């Protein structure tokens, strides 16, 4: 009778690395009405880490109190249209107690015809 016991231990490690961003937020923060960090704390954070790059927009919304938006986005899209879109989509995932960060990639397609 042979006692042949095979045992082994393995560990699987998965890493995801990306460049550290300053400030540690992306293009937009959607701040819920009862989120742990309110719009004023978000303003202080972005002003310290990245002055003059973000705008705080207070909203009259049932769930979302404010948005912190990278100002450069307003150079591509009008503010009202971008906020309307962010409210429409962000309102589906945000709730009163959350802070949702969003990455916004805008690609413009331009086509022109010229007379020859």
The arrangement of helices and strands along the chain is: EHEEHE
Q: Which regions have little confidence, pLDDT < 50, spanning 5+ residues?
A: none
Helix content: 10-25%
Structural class: alpha+beta
Which strand order do you get reading across the main beta sheet?
Answer: 2-3-1-4
> Per DSSP, what share of the residues sits in E-state strands of 2 or more residues?
15-25%
Count helical runs. 2
Radius of gyration: 22 Å
Using DSSP, what is the number of strands? 4
Characterize the main sheet: 4 strands, antiparallel
CA-based shape: extended
**Separation of termini?**
93 Å
Mean pLDDT: 87
Structure, explained:
The chain is α+β, with helices and mostly antiparallel strands and 116 residues long. The chain is built from two helices and four strands; from the N terminus they run βαββαβ. It has a four-stranded antiparallel beta sheet with strand order 2-3-1-4, with helices on both faces. Strand 2 (54-58) and strand 3 form a beta hairpin. The chain is extended and about 85 Å long.
């Amino acid at each position: 009778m042979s006692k042949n016991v095979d045992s082994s231990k393995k560990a699987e490690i998965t890493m995801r690395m990306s460049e550290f961003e300053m400030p540690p937020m992306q293009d937009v923060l959607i701040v819920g009405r009862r989120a742990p960090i309110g719009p004023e704390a978000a303003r202080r954070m972005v002003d310290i880490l990245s002055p003059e790059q973000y705008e705080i927009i207070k909203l009259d919304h049932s769930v979302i109190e404010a948005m912190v938006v990278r100002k450069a986005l307003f150079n591509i899209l009008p503010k009202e249209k971008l906020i309307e879109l962010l409210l429409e989509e962000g309102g589906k995932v945000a709730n009163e107690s959350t802070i949702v960060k969003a990455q916004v990639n805008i690609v413009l397609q331009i086509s022109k015809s010229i007379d020859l």
